User: Which sequence fits this backbone?
């Protein structure tokens, strides 16, 4: 496997590396409608034919995101498992992670050669983050439509996520969001943790996030070998 990494200089240092074997687990969180499912779909396309992957989706009362991904045909249906979280989507990814761990276990036994599992959180608010007992690294997805003040407001997703994705840059002008302000504020909150901007409307919109996951996989392999 050989890749040109275009995401130069991005620090892929994770929160906690797993002591277990198995695929890299990447959490994808962020507010409702910011583009989490669009990112999952884009990553599935990016990694097709390259990685063995699977997806767990969390929805409050439905299996809508899983159904969307199945309809979109980006991944075989049996590689996608929905978890219905009930009232508090953040609970299922942070406090009571059993249902999500169970879904990952099923996927791992179905596909013993998995390299990557994406876990999409049920859309919540700025405070929802994943337990590092569930995922190895987490991506937080914001979009520009809430205005350029959002990164400045901080919160654990903005501040502590391993990668911050600011999506829907195609709408920035329409909503009067200053991308430079968003980038600068995000950097001020995040220190060395990387921030990328994209439009997931663009077929290549998920490419930089995909490169970051590739770098994370390389790091993981190096740590396991050491
Ligand atoms: N204009 C625009 N729309 C987007 C972009 N990314 C996602 N969307 C749309 O935003 C809506 C919510 O996206 P979705 O991925 O379902 O958000 P989620 O709730 O975070 O999973 C959908 O209608 C997407 O088609 C983008 O970069 N630009
Ligand atoms: Mg979604």
Assistant:
């Amino acid at each position: 496997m050989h890749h040109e990494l275009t995401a130069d200089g991005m620090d892929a240092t994770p929160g906690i590396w797993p002591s277990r074997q198995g695929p890299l687990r990447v959490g994808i969180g962020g507010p409702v409608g910011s583009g989490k499912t669009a990112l999952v779909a884009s990553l599935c396309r990016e990694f097709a034919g390259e990685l063995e992957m699977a997806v767990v989706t969390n929805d409050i009362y439905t299996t809508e995101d899983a159904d969307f991904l199945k309809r979109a045909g980006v991944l075989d249906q049996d590689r996608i498992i929905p978890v219905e979280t009930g009232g508090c989507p953040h609970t299922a990814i942070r406090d009571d992670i059993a249902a999500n761990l169970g879904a990952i276990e099923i996927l791992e036994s179905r596909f013993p050669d998995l390299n990557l599992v994406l876990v999409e959180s049920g859309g919540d608010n700025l405070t929802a983050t994943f337990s590092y007992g569930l995922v190895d690294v987490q991506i937080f997805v914001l979009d520009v439509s809430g205005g350029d003040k959002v990164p400045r407001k901080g919160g654990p997703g903005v501040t502590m996520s391993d990668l911050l994705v600011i999506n829907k840059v195609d709408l920035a002008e329409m909503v009067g969001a200053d991308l430079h302000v968003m980038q600068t504020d995000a950097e001020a909150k995040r220190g060395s943790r990387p921030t990328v901007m994209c439009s997931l409307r663009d077929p290549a919109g998920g490419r930089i996030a995909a490169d970051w996951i590739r770098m994370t996989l390389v790091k993981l392999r190096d740590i396991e070998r050491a």
Notes: Confidence is low (pLDDT under 50) at residues 1-16.
